[in-house]
């Protein structure tokens, strides 16, 4: 009886080993097929317009779709908050003259309107990362054109844990990581946290936005901030309440130089 049991066990081991090897062989075959499919689709979508899908385009959009983004640059704006003017002039707005923000430089990629607003919302609310390269190009171009100081670190505007759990990602962090690779600098998203949930800023007026964010942000790893040149990065700038609150916290913890770069400036 004992001998028979040993033989059965040996047969089972051989059977399991054989099936496992076949399983690995099948898995390898499936993996190779999957990689070939990925390679096919990568080539299929390569150099296609991100909006209409026309192939063999230079850049991100075909000539027809590129016209949708031809009038996004502001002719005139405030040098410290980006408030858009109708006349082609760059000077401080009345609000910035009365209560100047604490940052040293400000820049925005383009005005938030039309088709650009649509694709930015698709990125922000639907997680469409296909436009990330285009957005990073805008940020990088603005960084150099506006003569930003090379930062010791980039701080993306943080989200609370609840907000992050709902959305699944922080769009400002993704922009910051992509830009940091271009500039060769660091992203320190854990140095600044949002410690409480707030109402969405887009549904509030200016005074409500200020009250909504009061005490919302907290500095962590303070030794990494002291004496540093920091670039605060966000996706959309409307009234500046978020950046003002963040700047106040950073200055309290010894940050030496603060500049603000945003992807889009809302027309207030």
How many domains make up the coordinates?
1
What is the CATH first-level class name? Alpha Beta
- CATH architecture annotation: 3-Layer(aba) Sandwich
Number of helices: 9
What does this structure look like?
This protein has helices spanning 2-45, 63-66, 94-98, 114-126, 132-145, 161-167, 171-183, 206-213, 241-252, and strands at 76-77, 84-85, 105-112, 153-156, 186-187, 192-194, 217-219, 229-237, 257-266. With 268 residues, it is an alpha/beta fold. The chain has one domain (71-266): Rossmann fold (3-Layer(aba) Sandwich), CATH 3.40.50. A five-stranded parallel β-sheet has the order 3-9-8-4-5, with helices on both faces. β8, α9 (241-252) and β9 form a beta-alpha-beta unit. It starts with a helix and ends with a strand. Mean pLDDT is 83; it is low at 2-6 and 11-18.
Task: Outline the fold blueprint.
Layout: H1 2-45, H2 63-66, E1 76-77, E2 84-85, H3 94-98, E3 105-112, H4 114-126, H5 132-145, E4 153-156, H6 161-167, H7 171-183, E5 186-187, E6 192-194, H8 206-213, E7 217-219, E8 229-237, H9 241-252, E9 257-266
Parallel strand pairs: 3-9, 4-5, 4-8, 8-9
Antiparallel strand pairs: 1-2, 6-7
